[in-house]
Amino acid sequence: MNPPLLQFNDKGIYCAQANVYIDPWRPVKNAIITHGHADHSRWGHQNYITHHTNVPIIKHRLGAISVTGKNWNETFVVNNVKFSLHPAGHIIGSSQVRVEYKGEVWVFTGDYKTEDDGIAVPYEVVKCHTFITECTFGLPVFKWTPQTEVMNSINRWWSENKAEGKTSILFGYSLGKAQRLLKYLDTNIGKIYTHGAIENMNNVIRPMVALPETTLITRETKKEAISGNLVLAPPSAHGTTWIRKMTPFVTGTASGWMAFRGARRRRAIDKGFVLSDHCDWDGLLSSIKATGAEKIICTHGYTDIFSKYLRELGYDARTEKTQYEGENAEMNKEEDLEKIIP
């Protein structure tokens, strides 16, 4: 029996025929990278291949690396194995990886979402025999509200805070979530200030995406200038001395985990907005069905529960362990799982 086209080992997802890894977590010679988040694009590989819009992002994060950029649907062949990158819709430059050898087709999604956020190239269905899918939010409880409604809620929250003389501090990942929020914030309400980590990433992405004007917070920034406006910051800034000059302030965070009862309270956040860069339950199921794949491999997320459900639907589904975390790192999943599943 021939070995599977893609194998999971201690370094990552490996195509032995091509001697190529996809999103490896240990240093390898040849690495195809789906997107710029740190759990999927790690330092130390000899050669990187990724979508060309992700090249400046991973160079910014990883420094001087040997990287080749590819276009969507551009086929590149390594030892008779055909590879191509297809939009994943997760964040800007995020890709699915299609792998074909002797008529057999596998697709690895990386992280993905099906809602068009107006920044990332929208998710593309890629037909395949075996589909490797994340299931970060692989529970029926996760059903996303349309982005337009969430952003309207965020802008109302900011406007109300300003009317009360309070600064709004909104937390979101510096890559992906921050730019998604920024694009739809209503600058008629006030000015948008940024933490350095977000401003630096904005500068990388601005040549590719139109974003509103922002002002970097520095040591010279006066408290009076910030008052009543909105500050966009990474979650790591919460509870630090950096935000003290914003007093009085109200905090908010945008995450899929805000769908969990108690998540906002445990993070000591004043307001939670349910907004994720990953598929919800329906998005996962519709994506899997659309691929036509019979074999499904579930990684990072609620893998056991989700794969069991897929088997009940008739799929040949199993799980594989990876070192990808994504939004999983934000929450203690097991603690919340007990609250929604008897």
From TrEMBL:
Gene3D superfamilies: Ribonuclease Z/Hydroxyacylglutathione hydrolase-like. This is Ligase-associated DNA damage response exonuclease. Transmembrane segments: none annotated. Its EC number is 3.1.-.-. PANTHER family: BLL1145 PROTEIN, CLEAVAGE AND POLYADENYLATION SPECIFICITY FACTOR FAMILY MEMBER. InterPro entries: MBL, RibonucZ/Hydroxyglut_hydro, Xnuc_lig_assoc. GO terms for molecular function: exonuclease activity; ligase activity; RNA endonuclease activity. Keywords: Exonuclease, Hydrolase, Ligase, Nuclease. SUPFAM superfamilies: Metallo-hydrolase/oxidoreductase (SSF56281). It is an enzyme of class 3 (hydrolase). Signal peptide: none annotated. The lineage of its organism: Bacteria, Pseudomonadati, Bacteroidota, Flavobacteriia, Flavobacteriales.
